[in-house]
Write a structure and sequence with these properties.
- With 765 residues, this protein is α/β, with parallel strands linked by helices.
- The protein is built from 22 helices and 23 strands.
- Helices cover 51% and strands 17% of the residues.
- A ten-stranded mixed beta sheet has the order 10-11-9-6-12-13-14-17-16-15, sandwiched between helices. A six-stranded parallel beta sheet has the order 20-19-18-21-22-23, with helices on both faces. A five-stranded antiparallel beta sheet has the order 2-1-5-4-3.
- A hairpin with a 4-residue loop joins strand 15 and strand 16.
- It is rod-shaped and about 175 Å long.
- The C terminus is likely disordered.
- It binds 6-O-phosphono-alpha-D-glucopyranose (G6P).
Length: 765
């Protein structure tokens, strides 16, 4: 409406000025036209009267009879309603005859012999305005006198007033019609502009700028500015990315700054199945455990920096003993930085949701490790129910209606949609920590549609690698009615756009555990003493959960092969395998446990030297300090995952080696191999290649170790977990800002008065 007023006010003003200037002009003009008509009429009357009048003047009758005849002639002519009076003056200039007798006195005869007046005189009388035309009466060249023809012309003024009124009405009507047309066109164009601008803001500017044949979301009129806008958007993106990239040392403070400055202190909620701190009953007391989970390793420092709320399954035997009445506990216990909200699950729920659907279904489905996924309808029901329970917890914990919610992993594929339905203003960033398979593989899942629709409730969906993003695009393309735009990395389904991006996860830098470590030489000595091996024995290390995706058996096969092809390492090389027990209720894991123990035992027996076993197997939980000490003691670290989203052990090993020594052997099927290019990259299924990598690693010169390690360390330092989280939060900021602009633009497009109030509320919020 405000926009329309911008058109209407000048229009009304212009029409007012036209009326003001035109009315007197039209008045003058119409008056002149009418006077000319009256002059012509007066001539006609004078000509018509001339002949009978002359005859009457010639009559030798008595004066009285002549007067009567002349007056009756004049009275007949006076039948014309506009003719007011008629009179005759003789050639001496005396008024001889006049009709009616009431003719105003100030209408007199003109001077004798005066030239013919083309236009009559205008005389103002009380009763109105008169037009007095004086016409000579001539016969045979003899001037007999003058005829005065007087017209009442007050009707001209009445008509002028009417004309003025009509003019005003006409201009008002024209103004009204123009106003209506203007308002319609203005609103119409404005809506087109808004739609176009929104399309451009959403990044579709490139359609205009680069692809002439492509769909034209912004309208033809926007083409000229589309290129500029696209350039502007690109510049801003580049600037943002540059700012992002230039933060070489990403630290907790960087996240706090983003939260404070970019996100204006918005609250952050994290949802994961695994909790960062587990309280376990030990005899009379309570012990605090940190789980073996890459997800927890990465997110815990982020949460410490963000001071939000972490919602997770309370799985520890003493978890209920330490929470408050709202199931919350502040952590870390020694230096509280954020809130942990525990969600309790029944045995049945845990069995169906966690062990069943998540770990017997989705886990093997997404990892190509040749373990058959199992899908049971009862597990699916529990999975859905538990996701709903966590959605309740998110709504309960959220202090606002637009929190930032970081949903973690395959345990919660349905959660983003559930949150979106209940908190439409939330910015939901979902991160899928494990690989995403190709559409054929994912299609095995009977509930693939529900899972995809659930995930597409997210604002942003993250994977570790572009390959996994592409698999996700392909899967959605194949299974859902959705618009997949690979140029803008966006999927639109059911009206909600979800951006799908690659965010390679990492670890904190510097790792907290590193600060508590002794020198590398001390770690080496201590580890060798503890393992009962000589100081010169080369030590390899593997640190995993006991999981069939980690390729532990393949690793052992490579060690065995090394000792076959290079027997000089028998008794001089030992491999310490730390395997944290994991998901041990699942049969597949129990069988793996047995097979791993058997393989280690068999190889150790085969290459027994009585003091230096080729494999030292420790199937137990080790805390971070312990693991870092062992990393520092080892000459090489072997990560042989058959398939892995990222694998943070590889990055931890690199981070632990501040002496720039040690060699990393890394599976090509772990996401980390896309970043740690200086590792010895292997195919874990290729035993010969892996054995050869072990041989190369054991023989690698200190200089080469340093070069490789230095390069990998600089990458992990630069691309640490703060950067991982920071990039997601910056993208979330960009999205929130864009949504704000869009909703403001939308509000502007509403023509009704309540709009102003809405804008104020939006800005205020
Ligand atoms: C992987 C998953 C995590 C999980 C971790 C440990 O890294 O991506 O979500 O927490 O394994 O598994 P667990 O089942 O013990 O939590």
């Amino acid at each position: 409406m405000r926009l329309s007023l911008r058109f209407l006010l000048p229009l009304a003003l212009a029409l007012g000025v036209v009326a003001y200037v035109a009315a007197p002009l039209i008045d003058k003009l119409t008056f002149a036209w009418f006077v000319r008509d009256i002059d012509i009429r007066a001539n006609l009357i004078a000509n018509a009267v001339q002949e009978p009048l002359v005859e009457m003047l010639d009559d030798k009758d008595r004066d009285a009879a002549r007067v009567q005849r002349v007056e009756s002639l004049f009275n007949r002519i006076l039948q014309d309603e506009r003719l007011f009076a008629i009179a005759f003056c003789d050639n001496r200039g005396a008024l001889v005859y006049k009709t009616p007798p009431t003719m105003p006195n100030n209408i007199r005869c003109g001077p004798v012999g005066a030239p013919l007046e083309e236009t009559g005189r205008i005389v103002e009388e009380k009763g109105g305005t008169l037009h007095v035309a004086t016409r000579p009466v001539v016969i045979d060249g003899q001037h007999l006198g003058q005829l005065l023809v007087v017209h009442d012309i007050s009707f001209i003024q009445r008509r002028s007033a009417d004309t003025r009124a009509y003019l005003v009405y006409l201009l008002a009507a024209i103004g009204g019609v123009f106003a209506l047309i203007t308002v319609i066109i203005a609103e119409w164009s404005w809506r087109g502009w808004i739609a176009g601008t929104k399309a451009l803001i959403r990044g579709q500017a490139r359609f205009h700028a680069q692809e002439p044949g492509a769909q034209d979301p912004g309208g033809r009129e926007l083409r000229p500015i589309a290129r500029d806008l696209a350039a502007l958007v690109n510049d801003l993106e580049t600037e943002r990315r540059t700012r992002d990239e230039s933060q070489v040392s990403w630290a907790p403070q960087s996240l706090r700054t983003i939260l404070r400055e970019d996100l204006k202190g918005e609250e952050v909620l994290i949802v994961s199945n695994r909790e960062p701190y587990i309280h376990v009953r030990r005899g009379e007391g309570i012990e605090l455990q940190r789980p073996a989970s890459g997800l927890v390793t990465a997110l815990e420092p982020v949460m410490r920096a963000c001071s939000g709320t972490w919602i997770a399954h309370g799985s520890g035997s003493a978890d209920r003993d330490v929470v408050d009445t709202n199931d919350r506990v502040q952590v870390p216990p020694d230096n509280p930085a954020y809130r942990l909200r525990r969600v309790w699950l029944t045995k049945e729920e845990e069995a169906g949701y966690y062990y069943g659907f998540a770990n017997e279904g989705l886990w093997p489905l997404c990892h190509i490790a040749h373990t058959r996924p199992v899908f049971r309808a009862a597990d699916w029901e529990q999975y859905r129910e538990v996701n709903r329970r966590f959605a309740d917890a998110v709504v309960e914990e959220s202090k606002s209606d637009n929190p930032i919610v970081l949903v973690q992993d395959y345990h919660f594929a349905l959660l983003p949609r559930m949150i979106r339905d209940r908190l439409p203003g939330a910015t939901i960033i979902t991160f899928w920590h494990i690989p995403w398979p190709n559409p054929e593989t994912f299609g095995v899942c009977p509930w693939q549609t529900e899972l995809l629709e659930g995930l597409l409730g997210s604002s942003i969906l993250g994977f570790h690698t572009q390959f996994h993003c592409n698999n996700f695009f392909d899967t959605v393309d194949r299974s859902l009615e959705a618009r997949v735009d690979r140029d803008t990395f966006t999927i639109s389904h059911g009206g909600n756009p979800t951006e799908v991006h690659r965010y390679p996860i990492s670890i904190e830098w510097p790792p907290a555990a590193l600060a508590r470590q002794p020198a590398v030489a001390d770690c080496r000595d201590a580890a060798r003493r503890e393992l009962g091996i000589g100081p010169d024995v080369k030590l390899g290390i593997g640190v995993d959960r006991l999981d069939y995706t980690k390729g532990i058996l393949e690793r052992f096969a490579a060690i065995e092969r090394l000792l076959e092809i290079e027997p000089q390492w028998i008794g001089r090389f030992s491999f310490l395998q730390i395997a944290a027990p994991s998901r041990s209720s699942i049969e597949e894991y129990q069988s793996l446990d047995a097979r791993v123990r058997a393989a280690a035992q068999r190889i150790n027996e085969r290459f027994d030297t009585g003091g230096c076993p080729p494999i030292v197997l420790r199937i137990e939980h080790h805390d971070a300090d312990r693991v870092y000490a062992l990393y520092r003691a080892a000459d090489l670290c072997f990560v042989s995952s058959l398939h892995d989203g990222m694998n943070l052990v590889a990055k931890e090993y690199v981070a632990s080696r501040d002496d720039e020594r040690g060699v990393l052997i890394l599976s090509q099927f772990a996401g980390a191999s896309r970043e740690l290019l200086e590792a010895l990259i292997v195919n874990p299924y290729d035993t010969e290649q892996c054995a050869n990598a072990l041989r190369v690693a054991l023989a690698m010169s200190p200089a080469e170790q340093r070069d490789r390690m230095r390069s990998m360390r600089s990458l992990v330092r630069e691309f640490n977990v703060y950067r991982w989280a920071g990039r997601m939060l910056l993208d979330a900021t960009r999205m929130r800002n864009r949504r704000k602009i869009e909703s403001q633009a939308q509000t502007q497009a509403q023509p009704w008065p309540r709009r102003g109030a809405k804008i104020l509320r939006l800005r205020g919020g």
